[in-house]
């Protein structure tokens, strides 16, 4: 099969490609070609060098989607987006990339199928940002999508397009609503959610990290490893089992910051937890207060999507995948 | 104030304009101008002839929205859409008119506001078609929008845009999710929902009507008079009371076809009900089986939106408004 990954240079995109390199039959068939694109050129793992083709493309410019789709990939991972903060700061760019870029992609598939029958699988990275407060304590699968950010609106709109285009047979789409991914590898970033990862990742390598909220803040998490698992499962799942509601809240772990820290203590000891510096930040506390705390992701679970059930697991996955198993 | 009505030649649009003619202060201020547009030129009631300006325009063609908004109306009623059946039959036209037309309008308002501060009220005609089966028996205000038609998807997407543009201060929008409007005036049409009105309207003037479903079919209704009331209330309501969830399921009456017929019997006697010919149509029965039966429209009710509470009222409103009170 021919596979296209849009957004292959992002954190989850890179991990997805690495997973494919390590498990070449995870997508349920021989991979003939792997087209990896992003706004900056992605790189391909050595194991894939004979079949991978990497390019820097901007999905939001005219003609890009048509060009990508003219190769008729059987499977499209669509992970390209500008992030929440940028979509809020730049209204036009957010709608152009996150909404129009996605719609161009879907329309390019439709146009290709009108030339010659074509119906690829499309696995789309959505987000729990499609939901907006006020929430019930646990958000059910039938809860409304009333986002409170432009990013969330753009993701929710793309979900509606994905479901309608799928219903009409343009492609076989599935939308994966990612929990907050934790532990995020890399350097601390300025995202309001950064601290959830920072307070684990930095102390694990002996560096101090700042905790700007209280320990009773609760949120919804899955590891990068689980995120990759969601996309791989979404690529191979029998969509007849899913029916017309194609956008699924992924399973995750509802945990407090205190539970995060207790798990860090169990996995890495006081040596690590003593590196967490409490520095309450009212701005971040205000932002985080509007975030969901837990989901009942029954539908996704019944369809075989799985995630961690403790923060110990999440931390151990990080130690294995990012620190070669060494604390 | 200056008022723009897009879709002023449609059934609800015409009734809205007639209502404004009869109650010129219903919009909470003196009306200086009334711009009435539709795909065919609307006509203005005589009482409004000095302030009304009618034109045939196609909202989905480039530049149309900018032109309409260059007059800087204080209040915009956006009722323009192609109907469900046509949006399903013509994919491109549905998305072009129902989605792109709405987005062009919203973007024209944004562009106008960037030239010079401008923030009109926008009252948008949405639909219970944003919901898709399976449903609970009574659909709550927090139920997900998972439409099963392209029309429903286009309305749900426009709702998300309306909420996000409102949140960002581009305009003050409110989305009005109309129940099935009954009794629809005019001639019987081929819409699958037509019989709900046909079996009342036709017998009331001595004409036979066909009932293609069983009497236990339940659905969600409001009169054209209530529909007009929703738009007028949406135009004048304090939106701070509404908050960021700007799309509201309107109140209505949950009733079975049997209850419709019993009300017709009470209002117009056996002379009328004997004109209903039962002719079960499996296709229509199948379509209608996927429709919602009842909503808990608590939010809209708490914000002062009202509708009929019995089919007797709905029929009497029709007799008063369409038959000059004479059966």
UniProtKB/TrEMBL annotation, chains A, B:
Its EC number is 1.1.1.281. PANTHER family: ADP-L-GLYCERO-D-MANNO-HEPTOSE-6-EPIMERASE, NUCLEOSIDE-DIPHOSPHATE-SUGAR EPIMERASE. Pfam families: Epimerase. GO terms for molecular function: GDP-4-dehydro-6-deoxy-D-mannose reductase activity. It comes from Hartmannibacter diazotrophicus. Residues 3-201 form the NAD-dependent epimerase/dehydratase domain. InterPro entries: DenD, Epimerase_deHydtase, NAD(P)-bd_dom_sf. Coiled coil: none annotated. This is GDP-6-deoxy-D-mannose reductase. Keywords: Carbohydrate metabolism, NADP, Oxidoreductase.
